[in-house]
């Protein structure tokens, strides 16, 4: 079944079509959920809830632009909404650090390790890091999405990068010591 037909069938609550659409999009949307969630289980919950929202709002999709992009935006917004409900973004006074580049030696860092240390970041740092670095949103867009100011977005990104850099350097020195 072509995607347009699948979407049309989902709009009339065809459960078989919903199941097919879920199977088609779940792997990609799960990776989005995993980026923004604290762990695998939370990502699974966020995926399920995101699909409920997608099916609830599917009539709002106007067949313009990528359906996958539309579903991804809903998924990201759903996850962010969960964090906003829990006041993850309380206002704190932070001095904005200079953005520093983190050089990663691909040979020494596994994707599993990177995913793990990103998930270990405090919520507000992880969300800003993912939105900015992995999904390409601007600080202005992030500030609007998270209901924070631009300076807080920049500061949270700088802190996330500093934490990740420290963890990568610690891992690299551990690997060097282990191999000696």
UniProtKB/TrEMBL annotation:
MF term (GO), any: DNA binding
TM ranges: none
InterPro entries: RNA_pol_sigma-70-like (IPR039425), RNA_pol_sigma-70_dom (IPR014284), RNA_pol_sigma70_r2 (IPR007627), RNA_pol_sigma70_r4_t2 (IPR013249), RNA_pol_sigma_r2 (IPR013325), RNA_pol_sigma_r3/r4-like (IPR013324), WH-like_DNA-bd_sf (IPR036388)
Annotated keywords: Sigma factor, Transcription, Transcription regulation
Domain RNA polymerase sigma-70 region: 21-87
RNA polymerase sigma factor 70 region 4 type domain residues: 115-162
Pfam short name (any one): Sigma70_r2
Family matches, as CDD domains: Sigma70_r4
GO biological process per UniProt: DNA-templated transcription initiation
NCBIfam families the record matches: sigma70-ECF
Family of the protein in this entry: Belongs to the sigma-70 factor family. ECF subfamily.
Protein name: RNA polymerase sigma-70 factor, ECF subfamily
């Amino acid at each position: 079944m072509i995607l347009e037909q699948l979407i049309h069938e989902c709009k009339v609550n065809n459960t078989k079509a919903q199941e097919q659409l879920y199977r088609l999009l779940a792997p990609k949307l799960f990776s989005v959920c995993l980026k923004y969630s604290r762990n695998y289980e939370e990502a699974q919950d966020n995926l399920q809830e995101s699909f409920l929202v997608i099916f609830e709002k599917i009539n709002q999709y106007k067949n313009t632009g990528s359906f996958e992009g539309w579903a991804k935006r809903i998924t990201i917004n759903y996850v962010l909404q969960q964090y906003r409900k829990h006041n993850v973004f309380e206002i704190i006074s932070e001095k904005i650090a200079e953005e520093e580049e983190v050089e990663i030696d691909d040979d020494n860092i596994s994707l599993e390790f990177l995913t793990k240390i990103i998930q270990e970041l405090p919520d507000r740092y992880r969300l800003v890091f993912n939105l900015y670095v992995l999904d390409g949103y601007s600080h202005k867009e992030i500030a609007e999405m998270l209901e924070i100011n631009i300076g807080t977005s920049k500061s949270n990104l700088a802190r996330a990068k500093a934490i990740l850099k420290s963890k990568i350097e610690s891992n690299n020195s551990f690997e060097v010591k282990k191999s000696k």
